[in-house]
């Protein structure tokens, strides 16, 4: 493609609303343009990268036995009401009415639609397992769209769904999809980790997220420094054996702690180590129940673990008013002593506290020398805290380290949740009706494009991996007014195309400095510059990744380029 015949509107200045590298560079290099907040147009370069990623996804999906289809973005609300997600998905679900006042949603995901199709079309175990996928635009009304393609309101996603007659069949396809995802992200050149994850609003269990390592990632990965263990920090179990110290238990005493509300403030006021503190948090469970949740002063309660422990759909901290109504004190003075009317749930670390301190359920007062089982009773002990760096790895190998990650893929074992609610049944070998078992597998395709840029760029611009670069080669003519340079460029352009290379030919009547700056910004794997030595039949080649430069005779270009692209 000749540069003069396409649209590549590069910018010198950084967009004022862009905070991260991928957002800045994809806009500056002419790959995308914002149409509305969280909504982007993919310009010709951006569309080519998107299609490259999509092709990798298609190839690996087909190898895994998945078949492509396409479902509507516009979905009837009735399907979402059947599963209950119309009511509990949240404000991110884009809802609308047609001219007849019928309710619809713009697809944030497609479990309802695909399950209704399979319910109507698949009746026998002989058609199972079956895995179907699509690549399609999704819509979620993000409260705060940010980071360009990483958190938008409209985005391109690959979603796949599998249907089974046995759990063993689901396990088999899940493993195939896990491998396919690993292959996809490897082929995209990404440094990533597959981590144990929470299924969230999707439901189901046994899920993994695929995280691209990046300092701007919004998720924290807890991983072992000596093994393959990795989990989203929300799901990482704590494998610590807590032991009580040998000091003698003292009698509980109430003390004034004016203006000391946080664990740090109380610890400093009492001049007692914070790990002797009993942090007491009142949680509201599924809108109408409450529980007092205890953690050691230096630990933080993990609300995902708490939700799973209680089998709840939703947990949140109670308000100041609710705390006063139930326990009679401000939130900073809550504690478990003499609490009768609500259950007390504690993290395992509480078992090791001797002569600790906690709120006295009187504003501005705390107890010291508090001991579990003696001064209060815990209804249930569980692993409820966030894992910390330096903790033992849950698999018993090494210690935990943290890294930031961008989620680009997620695989779920959904089980029977959607099939039961939508009536997706089949006849088994004995002619008896049974409910199907499901799996769900998603990749953020447009998000993957941004994640690639986050890992592959420098101060000059993007550095595309060969597998996803919009073009293979950037051919630059230094002076288009020079007939020898232009003639040689045209000749090289045709020869490269004949050898099946995708070439961006910069034939613009611009200064050489502008062309070189744009070339570095756009970031194609290799640049061929036709300049002063054109009359001798020589060109300059530059590798974008490492900046290596070398001269080649025109007769050496095709063999050298073939060798370059054959190397990993």
Automatic annotation (TrEMBL):
Residue ranges annotated for the Aminoacyl-transfer RNA synthetases class-II family profile domain, each copy included: 33-465
Keyword Nucleotide-binding in annotation: yes
Keyword vocabulary terms for this entry: Aminoacyl-tRNA synthetase, ATP-binding, Cytoplasm, Ligase, Nucleotide-binding, Protein biosynthesis
Reaction catalyzed: tRNA(Pro) + L-proline + ATP = L-prolyl-tRNA(Pro) + AMP + diphosphate
Annotated EC: 6.1.1.15
EC primary class: ligase
GO MF terms, alphabetically ordered: proline-tRNA ligase activity
Compartments, as annotated in UniProt: Cytoplasm
Keyword Endoplasmic reticulum set for record: no
Entry note about domains: Consists of three domains: the N-terminal catalytic domain, the editing domain and the C-terminal anticodon-binding domain.
Biological role stated in the UniProt entry: Catalyzes the attachment of proline to tRNA(Pro) in a two-step reaction: proline is first activated by ATP to form Pro-AMP and then transferred to the acceptor end of tRNA(Pro). As ProRS can inadvertently accommodate and process non-cognate amino acids such as alanine and cysteine, to avoid such errors it has two additional distinct editing activities against alanine. One activity is designated as 'pretransfer' editing and involves the tRNA(Pro)-independent hydrolysis of activated Ala-AMP.
HAMAP family: Pro_tRNA_synth_type1
UniProt similarity note: Belongs to the class-II aminoacyl-tRNA synthetase family. ProS type 1 subfamily.
Subunit field text: Homodimer.
Stored PANTHER family: MITOCHONDRIAL RIBOSOME PROTEIN L39/PROLYL-TRNA LIGASE FAMILY MEMBER (PTHR42753), PROLINE--TRNA LIGASE (PTHR42753:SF2)
NCBIfam families on file: PRK09194.1, proS_fam_II
Full protein name: Proline--tRNA ligase
Lineage, opening ranks: Bacteria, Bacillati, Bacillota, Bacilli, Bacillales
């Amino acid at each position: 493609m000749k540069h003069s015949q396409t649209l590549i509107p590069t910018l010198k200045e950084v967009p004022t609303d862009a905070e991260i590298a991928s957002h800045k560079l994809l806009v500056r290099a002419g790959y995308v343009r914002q149409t509305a907040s969280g909504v982007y147009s993919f310009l010709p370069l951006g569309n080519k990268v998107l299609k490259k990623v999509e092709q990798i996804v298609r190839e690996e999906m087909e190898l895994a036995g998945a078949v492509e289809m396409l479902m509507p973005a516009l979905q009837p609300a009735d399907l979402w009401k059947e599963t209950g997600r119309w009511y509990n998905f949240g404000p991110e679900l884009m809802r609308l009415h047609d001219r007849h006042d019928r309710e619809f949603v713009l697809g944030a995901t497609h479990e309802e639609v695909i399950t209704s199709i399979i319910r109507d079309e698949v009746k026998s175990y002989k058609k199972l397992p079956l895995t179907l996928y699509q690549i399609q635009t999704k819509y979620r009304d993000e409260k705060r769209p940010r980071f360009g393609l990483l958190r938008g309101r409209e985005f391109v996603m690959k979603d796949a769904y599998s249907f089974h007659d046995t759990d063993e069949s689901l396990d088999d396809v899940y493993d195939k999809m896990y491998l396919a995802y690993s292959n996809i992200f490897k082929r995209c050149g990404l440094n990533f980790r597959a981590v144990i994850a929470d299924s969230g609003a999707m439901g189901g269990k046994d899920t993994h997220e695929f995280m691209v390592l990046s300092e701007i990632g919004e998720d924290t990965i807890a991983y072992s420094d000596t093994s393959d263990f990795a989990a989203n920090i929300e799901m990482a179990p704590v494998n610590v054996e807590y032991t009580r110290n040998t000091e003698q238990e003292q009698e509980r005493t109430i003390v004034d702690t004016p203006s000391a509300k946080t664990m740090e403030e109380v610890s400093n006021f009492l001049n007692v180590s914070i790990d002797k503190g009993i942090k007491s948090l009142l949680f509201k469970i599924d809108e109408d129940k409450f529980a007092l949740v205890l953690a050691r002063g230096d630990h933080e309660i993990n609300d995902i673990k708490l939700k799973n422990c209680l089998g709840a759909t939703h947990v949140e901290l109670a308000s100041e008013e609710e705390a006063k109504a139930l326990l009679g004190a401000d939130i900073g003075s809550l504690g478990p002593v003499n609490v009768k009317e609500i259950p007390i749930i504690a993290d395992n670390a509480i078992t090791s506290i001797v002569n600790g301190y906690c709120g006295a359920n009187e504003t501005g007062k705390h107890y010291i020398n508090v001991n579990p089982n003696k001064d209060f009773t815990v209804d249930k002990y569980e692993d409820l805290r966030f894992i910390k760096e330096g903790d033992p790895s849950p698999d018993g190998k090494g210690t935990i380290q943290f890294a930031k990650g961008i989620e680009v893929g997620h695989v779920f074992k959904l089980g029977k949740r959607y099939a039961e609610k939508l009536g997706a049944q089949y006849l088994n070998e004995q002619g008896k009706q049974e409910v199907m078992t499901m799996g769900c597998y998603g990749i953020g395709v447009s998000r993957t494009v941004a994640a690639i840029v986050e890992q592959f760029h420098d101060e000059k611009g993007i550095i595309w991996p060969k597998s996803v670069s919009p073009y293979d080669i950037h051919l630059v003519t230094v002076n288009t007014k020079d007939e020898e340079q232009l003639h040689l460029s045209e000749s090289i352009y045709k020869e490269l195309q004949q050898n099946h290379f995708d070439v961006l030919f910069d034939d613009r009547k611009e200064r050489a400095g502008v062309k070189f700056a744009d070339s570095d910004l756009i970031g194609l794997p290799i640049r061929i510059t036709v300049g002063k030595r054109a009359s001798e039949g020589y060109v300059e080649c530059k590798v974008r990744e490492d900046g290596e430069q070398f001269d080649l005779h025109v007769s050496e270009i095709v063999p050298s380029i073939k060798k370059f692209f054959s190397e990993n």
